[in-house]
Design brief:
Blueprint: H1 2-15, E1 32-33, H2 34-44, H3 49-60, E2 72-73, H4 85-88, H5 105-115, H6 119-143, H7 157-160, H8 169-173, H9 187-190, H10 199-214, H11 219-225, E3 230-231, H12 233-253, H13 256-273, E4 277-278, E5 283-284, E6 287-288, E7 293-294, H14 301-304, H15 312-328, H16 355-367, H17 371-388, E8 393-394, E9 401-402, H18 408-420
Antiparallel strand pairs: 1-2, 3-6, 4-5, 6-7, 8-9
């Protein structure tokens, strides 16, 4: 059964392969997405290591001069997606968006290097990639943490990768969306509208885009100019882990300066992450920097922070929290607590289970000595695949497939889990 699933997953990945990058799925997402791409490289690494490196190299080749790595690269024209490059108008030679996504590239590159049989070749590729990844991390702490708190803020829901999470409701309700240019969504023609963000949320997304475009996409200005400034514990956890990985890899290359700076960023970020601990919920939660308070929205962001190698006491509490969620749903880990009134089992990030998040949470818990829960999460992930195929995400109550089908990073996670975690299928 395991090999059969691996073969099916590889077929999905190869079907979405465009040579030097993958698209998440045909139709719904026709371009290269940032964190999709980095996580997909993990799947490639088990059957084509060169192709795995190329995936990340293509992503980092479109880094902006200031260090930012955009969340979408528009390699080829496609009028089936909105908003396209004609809306973003970022002025890049190869069109890109003007915002970023979770910094999983450093984490992925560490995995690729560790798995490479030819370390001499891997070091050559690493020497080209690592300064770019480090520059991206420097950009985060410079332009998204201007007060030096140790935690970065996102300025658009799309940056989180969790577009319509309940975490953003408070900030979006205060969004001044008057004057948004009329638009026609394309996502709802490729997927069930009941599985996608609402039209009102989309107006907020586009208002922010137009606001930033009016500021010339100047990253030195965007943080302070955005009414949406959220400190996401999962987003920061990924960044912290990637900084740790960059520090380790810099030591391999003998770059002590990069190693020291990356390590310092990780240590400061990990300590600052504790300011996001919500004692009432027993998990980390988002901080609304614009409003100046810690939120109490029980989303998966606070569990995803486990990827940062949190203190063992915190890992224990996160496991208790996940176990409670497991009593409330059929398949771990729901993106929102089913006991909360805002839970929606079908709508994108307001309830559904995502394999990439499951993998990252399990990765963190496993490193923190919580192997039993990590294995349970991964086992649930494979049950979803066996029940519903390689969907974008799943109803955590019934296991129903949601969103796009034949999804690249879902397939990549199946290969990754089966090849590295030894979970029975």
């Amino acid at each position: 059964m395991s090999q059969a699933l691996i073969d099916q997953a590889r077929e999905v990945m190869e079907g979405n392969d465009r040579g030097s990058y993958t698209v998440p799925t045909h139709g719904l997402y026709p371009f290269q997405w940032n964190w999709d791409s980095a996580l997909s490289a993990l799947g490639f690494s088990h059957f084509d290591m060169n192709r795995a490196w190329v995936e990340v190299e293509t992503l980092m080749a479109h880094q902006w001069d200031d260090g930012m790595v955009p969340h979408i690269i528009f390699h080829e024209p496609d009028d089936g997606y909105f908003p396209g490059p004609e809306v973003w108008k970022t002025g890049q030679v190869i069109p890109t968006t003007g915002i970023t996504q979770p910094a999983v590239a450093g984490f992925a590159v560490r995995k690729l290097y560790d798995r490479s049989n030819d370390k001499a070749v891997a070091r050559e590729r690493l020497a080209e990639l690592l300064p770019k990844v480090h520059a991206w991390h420097q950009w985060f702490y410079r332009d998204r943490d201007p007060d030096g708190t140790g935690l970065v803020a996102i300025i658009h829901p799309w940056e989180s990768g969790r577009d319509n999470s309940v975490d953003w409701d408070e900030a979006l309700e205060a969004m001044p969306i008057e004057g948004v240019a009329p638009f026609t969504r394309r996502d709802t023609t490729h997927a069930n509208p009941d599985h996608r963000p609402s039209d009102e949320q989309y107006k907020c997304y586009i208002w922010l885009l137009e606001h930033f475009r009016g500021l010339g996409w100047d990253n030195a200005k965007l943080h302070d100019a955005s009414p949406f400034r959220l400190v996401d514990p999962g987003f920061n956890g990924i960044l912290i882990r990637s900084c740790d990985d960059v520090a380790d890899l810099a030591e391999v290359l003998g770059d002590t300066s990069m190693a020291s700076e990356a390590r310092t960023m990780a240590v400061k970020g990990r300590a600052a992450l504790e300011s996001l601990w919500n004692r009432t919920l027993g998990q980390y939660t988002c901080y609304n920097r614009a409003a100046g308070h810690l939120q109490s929205t029980p989303t998966v962001a606070g569990l995803l922070a486990a990827i940062a190698d949190v203190p063992h006491g915190r890992a224990d509490e996160l496991v208790r929290r996940i176990a409670l969620l497991g009593q409330r749903c059929g398949y771990l880990v729901p993106s929102h607590d089913p006991a909360d009134g805002a839970f929606d089992s079908l709508r994108y990030w307001r309830g559904p289970t995502w394999l990439i998040v499951n993998y990252l949470i399990a990765e963190g818990l496993g490193r923190s000595g919580q192997g039993e829960m990590a294995q349970r999460i991964l086992a649930d992930s494979l049950k979803l695949i066996q029940k519903s195929g390689f969907a974008e995400y799943y109803d955590p109550m019934s296991g129903e497939p949601c969103g796009g089908g034949s999804f690249t990073w879902t397939a990549a996670m199946v290969i990754e889990i089966l090849k590295t975690k030894r979970v029975p299928a």
